[in-house]
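Structure ticket #2291
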Amino acid sequence: MIRVAAILISSKIQSGQSHDENRKPLERILTNHQLTLLSYDVLADDRQAISRRLVTLCETTAPHIILTLGGTGVRPTDWAPEATRDVIEKEIPGIGEAMRAESLKKVRTAMLSRGTAGIRGTTLILNLPGSVKGMQENLDMVLPLLEHMVGKMGNVATQ
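Resolution: structure written out below.
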């Protein structure tokens, strides 16, 4: 069973100024694909805090995959890709490129997404958009490859 940790990145949600719309759809998607959600955190838009949490999750919870939700755009507060690059050992830029290419078929603003993916130890870290629709569409695109990727990283036997 593939273990997943998720980090929603939003100062507004973290401070209670806005409501989290992502958790339930994410839980539903993961359950439908027989993935286990180990933890779900909400963090403010802070590069160092995001980096620290990614490292802590990798070292303590050891999920196969960490999904970040939000912080991939062009606002001054969007730091998810940079925080991810701060902690990964290997970047997998093709994942971000593929998600953008697929999303661009549906919405022009997809070209503004800067999400990436990479590996720290035996954990895949994947940046997803913060909108529910963007998160769902991007996750739907990469889910068929997750078990294969995790298996290649030495975490789970592939079929």
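Closing remark: The chain has a mean pLDDT of 94.
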